From TrEMBL:
Superkingdom, taxonomy of origin: Eukaryota
Pfam families named in the record: Prenyltrans (PF00432)
Family per similarity comment: Belongs to the protein prenyltransferase subunit beta family.
Key word GTP-binding present: no
Protein name listed in UniProt: Geranylgeranyl transferase type II subunit beta
UniProt KW keywords: Metal-binding, Prenyltransferase, Repeat, Transferase, Zinc
Entry keyword Manganese: no
Domain Prenyltransferase alpha-alpha toroid residue range list: 56-349
């Protein structure tokens, strides 16, 4: 691979530094305002309006820390000690005391599975499993969300399974087993059967069996989940052929990928579609897609100040920055690119060095 493009990394690191610094500043401001009156933000007028975006962002804060931390790693950046400690401290505060092993997106919110797996991924990325507390409690919490049909729910008390939650659960259990240094084999035959029933006649996968439209994100989750339990081979020959055709059809005239037919391209689907295709076809992705055109599309989604937006000329955000760079990593390692991005490991959505 050619030498690392330092300018490329630098501009995206500047965006990430700015975003996370301003994010922690807004978080502190929100916490100050919560204590100003019994009604919280009620009656604060313009101040409340200015901070509405920060309040809404609380529902995905822990996941945002995972996206940013992983993006730093992809770019080969070592996080400064002060920022690293802020990330670890916040993740630790998100541990739910009333539900052992569970994590919330913010200390004031309800715990769920997706944020719990984000906490596990942050712990792995920063090599600090201590923020998770008792690892066996985390594993127990994740297993407690499995439903009778084999799928997983996102929260305790929910009876709705979803392939996103099922993948998240299997990813968390895989990482926790490594942190605990055990080789426990999960008995997940019912999971495999449920995931395979999510495939539709067009070849793509929906979020659950039945009348759920095929979607690139759901397709990735199903394939990655099957891979984590070594059941990807259970996909039928016909089902595999249909899926390859469906995935190949996700590339638009713009060069970018869409999530489903009829939708415009979005930078995040560079990851969801390519990662799914790599799990299914390996190096064949070079012949399945025009990777040069895809790379150009992601470049058009990049801001001159750093960060990746969903579409050209939109504002960048950490979600699309991470998944845009993660998808670009797959392109780069398939085409011997010049940017020096670390290789991503699809099944764990982490750089390959952690696989």
């Amino acid at each position: 691979m050619a030498s690392k493009d330092d300018g490329f990394a630098r501009v995206h690191l500047q965006f990430l530094d700015m975003f996370i610094a301003s994010g922690f500043k807004s978080l502190r401001k929100m916490e100050e305002l919560r204590g100003t009156s019994e009604g919280g933000l009620v009656g604060l007028g313009e101040k409340a309006k200015l901070l509405l975006g920060a309040a809404v962002a609380e529902t995905s804060l822990l996941s945002a820390l995972y996206w940013i931390t992983c993006a730093y790693t992809l770019l080969g950046h070592v996080i400064e000690p002060e920022m690293r400690q802020q990330i670890l401290d916040f993740a630790g505060r998100c541990r739910c005391r009333s539900t052992p092993g569970a994590f919330a997106p913010h200390p004031a919110h309800q715990a769920d599975l997706l944020n719990t797996v984000s906490a596990v991924q942050v712990a792995v990325l920063l090599d600090k499993p201590g923020i998770l507390g008792d690892l066996s409690e985390v594993s127990h919490y994740v297993r407690s969300l499995q439903l009778p049909d084999g799928s997983f729910a996102n929260r305790s008390g929910s009876n709705e399974g979803d392939c996103r939650f099922t993948f998240a659960a299997l990813c968390a259990l895989k990482l926790l087993a490594r942190l605990e240094n055990n080789d426990r084999k999960e008995s997940l035959d019912s999971v495999s059967a449920w995931l395979l029933r999510c495939q539709n006649l067009d070849g793509g996968f929906g979020c659950r069996p039945g009348e759920c439209e095929s979607h690139a994100g759901h397709t990735f989750c199903c394939l990655a989940a099957l891979s984590l339990i070594s059941q990807l081979h259970q996909l039928s020959h016909r089902g595999r052929g249909r899926l390859i055709r469906w995935l190949s059809g996700r590339q638009c005239e713009s060069g970018g990928m869409n999530g489903r037919p009829g939708k415009k391209a979005d930078a995040c689907y560079t990851w969801w579609t390519l990662a799914a295709a790599e799990l299914l076809a390996g190096s064949e992705i070079v012949s399945m897609f025009d990777l040069e055109a895809l790379e150009e599309f992601v470049e058009h989604c990049m801001s001159a100040e750093g960060g990746v937006a969903p579409h050209p000329h939109d504002d960048p955000d950490p979600f699309h920055t991470f998944f845009g760079l993660a998808g670009l990593s797959l392109v780069e390692h398939a085409r011997e690119g010049r940017r020096g991005l670390k290789k991503m490991e699809p099944t764990l959505v982490l750089p390959a060095q952690f696989s």
